[in-house]
Each structure stands twice: as structure tokens, then as C-alpha cells.
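Exercise 7.
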Amino acid sequence: MKNVIILLFSVLALAACSQSKTDTSSTTNSSKTTAVSTTVSQSSSSQETSSDIQGDSYDDSHDDTQGESRDESYDDSVSYAVNLDDFIQEIPWEEGSKRTLYDLSFESKQKNQPPTIVLNTKDLNNEGKAVYITTTAGDVIFYPVSIVEEPTKTIAVTNNAGEKREIKVNTVVRVVAPYDKSDPLQIVGDTYFLFYNNQGTISLATRNFYENTAGTTLDTTNMVEYLQANSSAETSSTTPVEDETKSEAYYDSIRTAWQKQKDYIDSIDDNAVKQSVQTSHSAAIFEANRLEMKYPEDADMINQSLQKVLAGE
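Solution. The predicted structure, written as C-alpha cells, is:
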């Protein structure tokens, strides 16, 4: 009996011990599971945070890169161009009306330079534009020109005070041969430049006719600045009789220019030379343009006189 009691006690003790180990193992496994779960959760959270940061960084970087691209792609190749609409002037005309002009005069006070150059953006020639250069001897020389915009270029000009400075330009005035192929100043092919000066008006940069003499390669590091002259056209207040007198005077002046050039051509024996000089037709047009520049208020009257001369009247 005693042995039975001892055996029963041993069985109960073993069972209790086994249950204790099972609980301990369960608790341990549960703790490990919780730890793993926590680690996974933290890792996931860290990844999400890292992803957000990387996303924000990419957005900022992408925006900055686009900004840089926009700056680099900005085209300022013609930012120094002159608007030819600034040549347009409206002056008082008859009976309260106005007349539109398309030319500006430019002046230089520098020694041995042509004192005045008129640039007309609506001229009677194939180019539609022209310069009228008044020489130091007082002669007025006509050349057709083309005006175009080209990529920015740096040139150097000297002003009336003798100060030399560099400027950037886009508007190019290219001298073209007249219809009769004459080139008395030997400047056909020259490129001059228009630009806005510090006073807000337009300047014309030309060859330095004294130091960079005609017939030599144009030196864009030694150009002369011509300043825009002030225009002071007044209202016409003439009577019909005065108008008729002026019309006859304009006709005579244009006709004389035509006849003088014709006589000169007739006096030339060499046909090759004849073909190289200005025609009488061009001489008449030139004189009419000169008169219109000097008397813009009488432009219609001058043009009528020109048409009469060209028609042989």
C-alpha cells in the first residue's frame, strides 16, 4: 500500500512539472512573436518614413532642375533689338489732320565725320529703306539699306565726348548697292547698328569714316555713335498761290537733277562706265527724297512733281 501511494505521488509530480514547462514555453514563444511583430511594424514604419522623405526630396530636386532648365533655355538673342515702330512720327498737317513720317535724323559732332545721316524706314526703292548721308562737303549721298535682327553682338562706339564704350546690339542696318550700282562712299556691304542709348532714344553706330576709311574692312571695335536728332516739324499754313510756287520749285529741282545726270551720262563714251554710274531716273528719285526729308510737310507735293518728271512732262 505504501508503494502504491509513493507511485501515485510520483505520477502527480511529473504531470505538474510537465504543465509548468508547457506554460513557460508558450509564454516564451508569445514574447518572441510579439517582439517580431513589433520589429516588423517598426521596420515598416521606418520604410514608409524613408519613402516619404525620398519623395519630398525628389519633388524638390525635380522642381529645382526644371527651374534651372527654364533659365538656361531662355532666349535673349534679340533682347537689344530696336523696334522700327519708334521711327514713326505723326506731325500736324492741314486742317487739323496729321501726317505720318517714317524717318529719323541722326547727328554726330565728331571731327571728319558726316554730320548728318537720315534713315528712312519707308523709302522709294526696292529695299523699302534707305540712308541719306550728308558729307562734310555738304553733298547728300543715297544708299538703300536692309534692316534685320541678328543674334546679339558686342561692338564698341565712340560718342561726341570722345568716350568709348562697348554695347550689345541686335538690329543690323546693311548698306546695299543702289539701282545704278554706284558706290561713291565705297560702303556697300557695310553693316551699321541701331540701339537704344541711356537717354532712351535711338543711336546709330556707323563706320568711323576718318580712322576706318571707306573701302577698308569695317572695324566694329571702332565705330561712331550718331545720336537721334530732335524733330520740330510745324503745321503748314501756306496759301494756294504759295503752294503752286513751291510745287514749281520742287519740280524744277527734280527736273534739274534728272537733266544734269542725263547730260553727264551722254558725255561718257565708254559704255562700261555709262552702266556703272547713277541713272537719271535714280537721280530724280534721290532729289525727291532729299526734298522730302528737308520739307516733310510738302511730301505729297514733292511726290507729284517727281511723277511728272519721271513721266517726261
